[in-house]
User: Which sequence fits this backbone?
């Protein structure tokens, strides 16, 4: 397999640059990538080999869907080397490596949290392993235990009442993208050498807390890199040296990624920005006659097959919150280079082509960094793939590149980071709508009556007074920002100690830039409520204890999502105000505080835990996802909604602002060609207007209703929901109804 | 108007506005729906636009200010502005001024009309119109009467020829209703008309649907086609084929 690699120069024909002397993949890509300006006509379909491998896996999916998991190795706490090599189809596979010794067999990762592991095992009818239990209760503490030892009481109360939720305190935090390309470009030995140099440099510094921690982390990183080599050796590969061919480049970088997924059950385990990098190798292979287009596509297809079967063991509740079984293997495609050349290559097309060759799927989470300056052929292919599969999300490259750089990738759904240079402490999100109800109720929860926030005088009177509500809201948001960051500081301190991402951090620069990525949910509900209080008359209905439990709205009021400045300005104000309050908090390891407006699919659960709101929304009703306007209140179509969302300042929400737009095919034009042109036009318009992120669902209501009634007919129906593509038939009936009732833009 | 005097404020009855993609002319469009229509088409899916009083008085300035917010977006997205209704030519001065002002902003303009009141469109209005979406409802005068209740076919045909003579591009629209507008001979006549005109860039055969039924109920009106099913794919293909046979571009 790797017979002659020692005789050829792995860097032959590469253009030189600083990347040779220092670890700098971005520089390598800049100097060696060649933009592809043509259309999709060169692409090839799947080979028989590809289909044979894929079919073998597909045969297992129905069983997995039925049971929730296909198989679990409950006795082996996963590490990079804990499991023997596993294969899907040893004779046919081109890219090898599985998380455990068999496909779809899930590993346990108790270091993040034993409780989550055991709950999940029991939920799927398996007994937790006694030895594992003993180790992780008697000898080894978990992240989860450590966090709960250190949480203060007000964080626990805020968590219980769901004003702060989704915190990564019971499992891996995720959202850290190792620069897996480094494994391929440099080989592991060079990376170890570089880490050793960093560590040696610390020897000259006094042993303060920070320095001790850095030294220990670097030592762990070096150890993890050693294990990475060992794991690859188990598959018969020596990855101590750089990859010498396209196949090796994909294999090496996949090994890097695979090792990360063997150790971390992260909420999002994203891949980075690999297509342009891989293209350099595939192009060289083609020039050298080693590969033709079919062969190149085959390698990409085989790689993507592997990415599609990344699995983590999680509880059914977790899957319910996030709809299905998400892993967020996000790959960022396209975008423009700082030099004005598009970062679009043939391999960028090849990645998208997998949605045809293997059929649509939510993973890997293919994310196009869109710029109106991208080549037309690529824009049209993206639009076409969106029309056919709804499986791409778009982010605005014209916002990301100036804020970060042109080697930036998305983690999870909308979180941008420079690959290998930035990491983030994932912070889930707080419920801004519920916070408004707390303000009105003097810090008491509207559903339980419990005093969660510190007691303040409730907003009195029969009709809500705008200024009084605003003053109270301001105080509540101060408390919320403080409590929230407090919780995150505890979580990330303990995660670093008990579930440190050794391998992912080994593939980052040292020192690394850290973000603390907070988030908000319920934006549109909070905004419309404030608008109702300001422009209409909102009467309060109280229970016998004086708790405001319902509201009656009189008069018209502008709603967010219709490009009406009166409502949209409230949204801008709220985003900026809360972001400023967060930035005033001191974050663990002096991380930069950022914020997202993103819910993924948890908008349903947030709604369920939030009482009646002053905008007329009923208790339990789902929120709109992300930064979307409330379902049904956007009366002027997708473009108006997009323009409203585009007003939210990216500078205040650098971790991303998510918009989900659902269009019917008919709502994009009459013919396929027209629809492609029009969708590309809408993406240009939205990017030009300053919109950050757009999920495009091209669907009709009838399709969805039929899929609800006959899930077996739509095993692959992918729906984009706020930052993420989910498999529609895996949603709960409640979530399916939410998707269906979402505004369908377009003339029917 | 005396020199130096302020122009009178021009306003019109506007039912609503919306943005749409690919269905009201090319690209992403800002669509203004004006209130009021002299016809009573049996298949009308917007009976709420029939009466001028159901609109709000809006000045041209107000509408242009709203449209200006979308100008950049619709331009980048390859679209423009469509003035629709109801029947926009029921308010020819307002419509004309709105089209002129949009045109002056550099926006592509479209007029969506039945043509029944085409005589009211002066040349200045048509000079400011880049595309007319002309709803030719029938090929035979009797059918036209049956479809519209109150209208006559001749004015639409007259308007169509005028557009062809002045070189204004047209999209001919034809609403296909089983049992009402689906006769082979009926369609053939419309196809004859369309094929005989220069400037017909395409023909849109629009399958009848019942999604506007609830609006009739809300207005306390009976929906005449409540029991008519949308055309099946075969019928749609046949009718489209009749236009294609005449060398027309059909969508
Ligand atoms: S012309 Fe148009 S608006 Fe007027 S009745 Fe006919 S379909 Fe309705």
Assistant:
């Amino acid at each position: 397999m790797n017979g002659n690699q020692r005789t050829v120069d792995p860097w032959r024909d590469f253009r030189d640059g600083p990347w040779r002397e220092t670890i700098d993949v971005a520089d390598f890509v800049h100097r060696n990538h060649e933009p592809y300006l043509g259309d999709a006509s060169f692409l090839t379909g799947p080979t028989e080999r590809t289909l044979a491998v894929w079919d073998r896996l597909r045969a297992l999916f129905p069983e997995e869907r039925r049971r929730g998991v296909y198989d679990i190795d409950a006795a082996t706490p996963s590490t990079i080397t804990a499991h023997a090599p596993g294969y899907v189809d040893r004779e046919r596979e081109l890219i090898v490596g599985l998380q455990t010794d068999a496909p779809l067999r899930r590993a346990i990762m108790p270091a993040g949290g034993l409780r989550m592991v055991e709950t999940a095992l029991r939920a799927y009818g398996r007994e937790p392993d006694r030895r594992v239990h003993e180790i992780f209760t008697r000898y080894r503490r978990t992240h989860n235990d450590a966090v709960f030892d250190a949480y203060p009481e007000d964080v626990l109360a805020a968590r219980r009442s769901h004003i702060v939720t989704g915190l990564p305190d019971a499992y891996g935090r995720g959202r850290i993208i190792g620069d897996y390309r480094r494994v391929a470009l440099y080989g592991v030995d060079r990376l170890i050498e570089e880490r050793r140099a960093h560590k040696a440099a610390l020897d000259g510094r006094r042993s303060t807390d920070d320095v001790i921690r850095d030294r220990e982390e670097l030592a762990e990183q070096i150890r993890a890199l050693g294990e990475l080599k060992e794991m690859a050796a188990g598959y018969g590969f020596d990855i101590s040296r750089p990859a010498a061919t396209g196949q090796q480049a994909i294999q090496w970088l996949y090994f890097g990624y695979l090792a990360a997924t063997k150790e971390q059950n992260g909420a999002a385990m994203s891949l980075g920005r690999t297509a342009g990098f891989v293209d350099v190798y595939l192009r060289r292979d083609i020039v050298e006659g080693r590969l033709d287009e079919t062969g190149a596509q085959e390698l990409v297809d085989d790689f993507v097959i592997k990415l599609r079967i990344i699995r983590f063991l999680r509880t059914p509740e977790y899957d319910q919150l996030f709809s299905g079984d998400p892993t967020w293997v996000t790959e960022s495609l396209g975008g423009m280079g700082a030099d004005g050349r598009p970062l679009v290559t043939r391999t960028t097309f090849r990645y998208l082509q997998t949605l045809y060759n293997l059929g649509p799927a939510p993973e890997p989470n293919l994310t196009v960094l869109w710029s109106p300056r991208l080549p037309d052929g690529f824009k049209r292919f993206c639009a076409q793939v969106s029309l056919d599969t709804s499986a791409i999300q778009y982010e605005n490259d014209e916002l990301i590149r100036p804020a970060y750089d042109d080697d930036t990738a998305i983690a999870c759904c909308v979180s941008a980071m420079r690959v290998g240079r930035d990491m983030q402490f994932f912070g889930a999100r707080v419920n801004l709508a519920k916070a408004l109800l707390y303000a009105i109720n003097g810090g008491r929860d509207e559903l339980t009556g419990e005093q969660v926030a510190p007691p303040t005088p409730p907003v009195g009177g029969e009709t809500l007074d705008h200024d009084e509500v605003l003053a109270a809201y301001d105080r509540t948001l101060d408390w919320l920002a403080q409590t929230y960051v407090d919780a995150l500081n505890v979580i990330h301190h303990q995660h670093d100690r008990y579930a440190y991402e050794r391998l992912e951090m080994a593939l980052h620069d040292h020192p690394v830039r850290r973000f603390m990525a907070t988030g908000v949910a319920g934006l549109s509900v909070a905004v419309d409520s404030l608008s109702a209080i300001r422009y209409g008359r909102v009467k309060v209905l109280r229970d016998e204890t004086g708790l405001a439990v319902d509201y009656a709205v009189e008069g018209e009021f502008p709603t967010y999502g219709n490009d009406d400045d009166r409502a949209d300005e409230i949204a801008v104000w709220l985003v900026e105000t809360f972001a400023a309050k967060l930035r005033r908090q001191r974050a663990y390891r002096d991380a930069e505080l950022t914020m997202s407006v993103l819910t993924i699919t948890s908008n349903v659960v947030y709604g369920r835990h939030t009482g009646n709101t002053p905008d007329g929304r009923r208790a339990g009703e789902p929120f709109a996802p992300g930064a979307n306007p409330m379902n049904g209140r956007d009366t002027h179509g997708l473009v108006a909604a997009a323009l409203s969302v585009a007003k939210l300042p990216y500078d205040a929400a650098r971790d991303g602002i998510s918009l989900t737009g659902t269009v019917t095919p008919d709502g994009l034009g009459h013919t396929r060609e027209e629809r492609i042109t029009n969708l590309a036009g809408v993406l240009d318009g939205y990017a030009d207007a300053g919109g950050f992120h757009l999920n495009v669902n091209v669907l009709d209501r009838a399709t969805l209703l039929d899929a609800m009634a006959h899930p077996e007919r739509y095993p692959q129906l992918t729906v984009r929901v706020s930052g993420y593509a989910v498999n529609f038939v895996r949603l709960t009936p409640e979530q399916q109804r939410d998707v269906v009732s979402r505004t369908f833009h377009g003339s029917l | 108007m005396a020199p130096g005097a302020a122009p009178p404020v021009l306003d019109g009855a506007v039912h609503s506005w919306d943005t749409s993609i690919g269905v009201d002319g090319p690209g992403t469009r800002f669509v203004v729906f004006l209130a009021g229509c002299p016809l009573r088409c049996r298949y009308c899916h917007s009976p709420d636009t029939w009466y001028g009083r159901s609109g709000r008085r809006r000045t041209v300035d107000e509408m242009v200010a709203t449209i200006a917010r979308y100008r950049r977006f619709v331009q980048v997205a390859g679209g423009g502005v469509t003035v629709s209704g109801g029947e926009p030519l029921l308010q020819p001065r307002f419509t004309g001024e709105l089209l002129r002002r949009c045109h002056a902003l550099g926006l592509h303009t479209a007029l969506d009309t039945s043509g029944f009141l085409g005589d009211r469109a002066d040349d200045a209005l048509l000079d400011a119109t880049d595309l007319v979406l002309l709803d030719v409802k029938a090929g035979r005068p009797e059918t036209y009467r049956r479809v519209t209740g109150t209208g006559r076919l001749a004015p639409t045909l007259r308007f169509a020829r005028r557009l062809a003579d002045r070189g204004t591009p047209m999209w001919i629209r034809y609403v296909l209703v089983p049992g009402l507008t689906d006769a082979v001979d009926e369609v053939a006549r419309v196809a004859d008309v369309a094929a005989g005109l220069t400037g017909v860039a395409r023909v849109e055969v629009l399958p009848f649907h019942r999604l506007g039924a609830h609006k009739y109920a809300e207005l306390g009106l009976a929906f005449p086609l409540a029991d008519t099913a949308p055309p099946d794919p075969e019928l749609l293909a046949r009718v489209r084929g009749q236009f294609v046979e005449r060398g027309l571009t059909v969508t």
